[in-house]
Design goal:
Shape: globular
Number of helices: 9
CATH architecture: 3-Layer(aba) Sandwich
CATH class: Alpha Beta
Number of domains: 1
Bound molecules: flavin mononucleotide
Largest sheet: 6 strands, parallel
Structural class: alpha/beta
Strand content: 5-15%
Oligomer: single chain
Radius of gyration: 17 Å
Order of helices and strands: EHEHHEHEHEEHHHH
Length: 235
Amino acid sequence: MPVIKVLGISGSPRKNKSTRFMLEVALESAQATAPEIVETELYSISGKTFHPCDSCHQCEKLGHCRKTDDDFAELRDKWLAADAVIYSVPVYHMGIPSQLKSFIDRVGHSVQEAFNDRSLKVMGFLTSGSGFASGQESVMIFLNSHAVMEGCVPIGGLWPVGYIGVGARVPYPKTMRDWYEANDEHTLEAVEATRELAKQIVLVTTILKSGGEQNRELLKTYGGFELFLQRLDSN
Ligand SMILES: Cc1cc2nc3c(=O)[nH]c(=O)nc-3n(C[C@H](O)[C@H](O)[C@H](O)COP(=O)(O)O)c2cc1C
């Protein structure tokens, strides 16, 4: 059985609040789904610097982003090596925090192969906002689009809680952990949906990787699966 590397990205500049809580729930569930093959890692953007893409187009010649004076390369390398990526993200003004947007713009642009390559990472999306219908859906739609653009496979949550990810409501100033410990009904549902989403991510990743192993020659013949084949080879 191939190893499944699951990278969790906590997209909040706050260190240890709701975004991270949701992600820890997801990674624990991913690990428990197939303990013998799943390796998880949690990466937090808190305290990290990601300069924005300034459209210099140097990456088209260099094959990598020219900017090296920040934390971009560290996360890009983890992202490239992952079979599955779970993004946990707070809603910021109906969208995602600018640090994470900078990372996505730069990884999307500078990993040239990804444009025409199906890297077949499995992706899932967790988000929290302080209000009702206050941007959770916009965040999840954006991240689903990011997955498709990068040749990845977005996994929806399970009905009736998660359609395109898990969108939690966390009234400020309490955190999701506070609401969970208070047995808040909505939070309990969001946590259950998070566990289920992580489980589905591991199962689909397992199917994809074993299918890839059995069809290497076919994938090589047709091309367009370089990043996926590189990950299969690195196991
Ligand atoms: C700059 C900023 C903008 C925000 N914009 C929204 C918003 O548009 N909709 C929303 O529901 N919550 C918004 N929030 C609240 C956060 O999304 C919410 O508190 C989230 O759970 C924080 O996650 P964290 O505790 O991991 O930092 C905003 C918070 C900040 C700091």
